[in-house]
Amino acid sequence: MFGLNAKDTRLLWIVIGLTMLAPFLLNPFPEGSELAQFNAGYPDLMQRFVIFGIFAIGFNILFGLTGYLSFGHAAFLGVGSYAAIWMMKLLTMNVIPAIIMSIVFAGLFSLIVGWISLRRSGIYFSILTLAFAQMSYALAYSVLTPITGGETGLQAKISDPRILDSNAGEFGRANLFGLHMNSSYELTIGRWEFTVNTGYYLAACVMLISFYMAIRIFRSPFGMMLRAIKSNQQRMNYTGLSTRPYTLAAFVISGMYAGLAGGLMVAMDTQVGPERMFWTASGEVVLMTILGGAGTLIGPVLGAGMIKYMENIISKINDSILHQWFSFLPDGLEDVIVAVVHPFIGKGWSLTLGLTFMAVVIFLPGGLVEGGQRLGRLFGRKSAESDKKTPPAE
Amino acid sequence: MSTSNFTRRGVLKSGAVAGAGLALPTIFTARSAAAFTNDPMGSSVTLGFNVPQTGAYADEGMDELRAFELAVEHLNGGGDGGMLNTFSSKALGGNGILGKEVKYVTGDTQTKSDAARAAAQSMIQKDGAVMISGGSSSGVAVAVQALCQEAGIIFMAGLTHANDTTGKDKKANGFRHFFNSYMSGAALAPILTSQYGTDRKAYHLTADYNWGYTTEQAIRESTEALGWETINTVLTPLTQTDFSSYIAPVLNSGADILVLNHYGGNMVNSLTNAVQFGLRAAEANGKKFEIVVPLYSELMARGAGKNISGILGSQNWDWKLENQLGARYSGTNAFVQSFGTKFGFPPSQAAHTCYVQTLLYADAVTRAGSFNPCAVVEALEGFEFDGLGNGPTLYRAEDHQCFKDVLVVRGKENPENEFDLVEIVEVTPVAQVTYAPDHPQFAGGNLGACNPGA
After folding, report:
1. Count of H-run helices and E-run strands, chain B
2. Chain A closest CA to B33's CA: distance in Å?
3. CATH of B44-179+325-404, one of 3.40.109.10, 3.40.50.2300, 3.30.70.2190, 3.40.50.720
4. pTM, whole model, 2 decimals?
5. Are A185 and B118 a contacting pair at CB < 8 A?
């Protein structure tokens, strides 16, 4: 269906199921229970899951297919965000123009950056993109302050012109033809509480479309050409084939994905700051892709979810919560265990993430996807044989 | 490889599925029935304390967290009650807020707007916080304040000193107890001119964000009005740690005063660099070269060590206030007493403002009889109170800014211990630092209407 083979269709349906049921799947623990700490089914975090999923899917089109490692993708995310917030300030709080313009501007910007950076490959390409990203960050931070608002960033204000809105002059909310992005419906079933949020479902639908397009790109002749570039670019050049247009196209497409993610971030939460373009943000998307499995379809989305989960959930566990958990232990032992766990929670969440990342890279070079495949092979019903004949899922 | 199936059946099938997918989200448009966001239903109410636990302002953040912990303890009837005993409003009885036990959640702002907003969102959406407080940077305060306005939550700003927080970025759901750049300028300028003369030439180094801009503007305008001249102003990145290249040109610029519009770790580094370059021993234009730090704090003084002695600046509050200037500042000793007993050292001004903000919020809810943000806004607007350490104070209705006396302080020459680093030079009466709500330094803002959310 949708022009996909059976296997990809199944993958797409799984992703559709997961994203549509996310508010329920991510809140498995009843409200008020001690494990409710690990619930991730609140709108802001779910939105982050899918938005960074889009960002990582786009990055994977460049890195996973062509092997070009860009260290500057956060710049496109930032450009998309700034374009989106300006559309909201000038035109309307409706998110459609904001999202469209974020893609357009990020595409144009990535065309310029790609046209210059793609003259080199390997480490030189990475450094060039990193330089561009840091340059954009510095520009947004201090040089272009009138456009970017400097460190404070930009927000929707009452005084914005918003020429297409009938309620300009009042406080505007991001909406889709009147449907507010932050409106939610609280569903209480027994002791469980689920939040169904408009913004999340918009972002999720956009993510599904992006995911579908990524599958089509992966399976197209164009995708095959990109993979050929990854495996041996020199040989392709010797056969008389210019690879530049293909890499540039892949670069621009992944830049547009990043811009789309930036635009959606603004649609969900109408504010932009330059730290979104800082090099650590570019590094984060690299981590997401590798953690999930570079070159695979679903991997980057899983990686994005994993990192955002750790950042938002692990970082909120503090010592008093730990004491609650281990209160059943004798006092001395309880203190020892809390002291041992302490460095890995709260502000130490990045330490936990680092260890996880190392473990994944060392033991599962194919990322979380490889872990899933191994599990599948372990418990699968004789499907191991057929797996050997077909190449691993991508 | 792509497998194309543009047959009639294929298109119909795909179209139906896509249509169903697009229609799905529109089922969920109902809104919850509560009158306002996070109406506390059970026997407890949750407050969110969002402070920097990592980054340049982490010291301030940790002290704020201690103050919040103490405030919650006092609200729930624990400890010695602290300022509840001296507060002029007697609505709070140590039985929580409106009989509900106060609980709190914490988050890390990382002094980044995005991280701060993500932490605040999780407090609002996941933990059901009905009020957010804290923060140690004006950039973050402005970002979180806007978020709270949108979500229908009260924001009680922590340490934020830029004019913008209650100026061009003010919001109906946001309140600031801390003083601001304009007040620093108005309090400092007369003292600077009387100490250093009226024919001085100033050189500004300014942190490159909204707080830096408004502080530089405030100091420049109020000193220029008294005869000073501004030679040059230079912006420095917030992430800068070595200011040598910015300090080097100062001596030959013709200036005889250096104003460091820096805070936290920035200020400690730039001041240390300035002293290393011999600025404090230098002479320029036949006068002794002087350094001014508009916004002072004990934590910064501790970081800067000996270098800070003799340098003038302004503060919102100091733990020695009541001992040195009498009962007008009652509440100070009560707070220092309970903070010192619990943690073993005196509180910083960041801790004080956060403690007071929590009490003020709890009091406003109790007086209003409701957690509804609009009722709280009404209870706080134009509220006059005393006994919270700053003397008689007004929460002005026009911009949600507190008006109270401002301290001009100086780094002590021979501190007796590591907590007694600052001496109070003068207390500027509130009348001298009051300005009209439409003052040019605060222009362009609009409170808008209060938003109860949901």
Report:
1. 14, 17
2. 9
3. 3.40.50.2300
4. 0.86
5. no
